[in-house]
Structure to design on (238 residues):
């Protein structure tokens, strides 16, 4: 478990955290309600995040919705729905992530890369996507939020050569496709971590289990009733 994913009595005190409205554009009058929902979700997930980290998460949400049309970032435009289905959904994996440098493949608007970078400032995060506009958004928001541990890169995964301790993805339709493109970016002893809705099928698991140690982690995302899983894969020792 990561250092920032500690269960702490201090997290319970964050349920009434006050968020300064200065600088928010899209959240407006909904900010207090959204701040309360976020703080409650953080408490339910056993995370220990400061008031400033919570404000930064909400600032990211605000900028995501503000720049959505210009950069085509998300189909979700309702702030509460976006908070739950994007921010809180990504927060649910934080306690389960192995430590070390992280690459997020097909990051889109920076999900989960930006959320991880906010919650774990000690972790170096690389957000990779071939869509230049979305990477420009991540560069802009990383600068505004002061995320010095975030490196946005516009590239296809096949053209990217660095290796990482953890490789994540939230967007791949197939677990097998994710493993095919991501395994070469994995450092020795590293982990692939795929965010999925439903658990992998038996066929997918059988196709991978000869080479990979696979752990399927059911996730309970606060305020979200849809199924969510994190699939953790590590290379089997020969």
């Amino acid at each position: 478990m990561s250092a920032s994913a500690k269960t702490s009595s201090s997290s319970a005190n964050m349920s009434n955290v006050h968020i300064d409205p200065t600088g928010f554009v899209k959240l407006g009058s909904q900010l207090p309600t959204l701040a309360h929902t976020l703080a409650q979700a953080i408490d339910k997930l056993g995370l220990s995040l400061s008031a400033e980290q919570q404000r930064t998460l909400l600032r990211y949400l605000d900028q995501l919705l503000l720049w959505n049309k210009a950069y085509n970032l998300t189909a979700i435009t309702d702030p509460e729905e976006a908070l739950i289905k994007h921010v809180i959904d990504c927060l649910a994996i934080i306690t389960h992530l192995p430590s070390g440098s992280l690459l997020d493949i097909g990051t889109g608007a920076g999900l989960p890369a930006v959320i991880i970078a906010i919650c774990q400032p000690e972790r170096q995060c690389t957000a990779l996507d071939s869509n230049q506009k979305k990477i420009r958004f991540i560069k802009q928001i990383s600068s505004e939020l002061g995320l010095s541990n975030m490196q946005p890169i516009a590239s296809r995964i096949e053209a990217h050569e660095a290796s990482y301790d953890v490789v994540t993805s939230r967007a791949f339709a197939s677990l097998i496709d994710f493993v095919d493109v991501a395994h070469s970016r994995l450092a020795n002893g590293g982990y692939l971590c795929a965010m999925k809705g439903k658990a992998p099928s038996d066929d997918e698991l059988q196709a991978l289990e000869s080479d990979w140690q696979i752990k399927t982690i059911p996730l309970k995302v606060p305020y979200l009733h849809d199924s969510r899983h994190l699939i953790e894969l590590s290379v089997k020792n020969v």
Q: What stands out?
A: The chain has nine helices and seven strands. The longest strand covers residues 186-196.
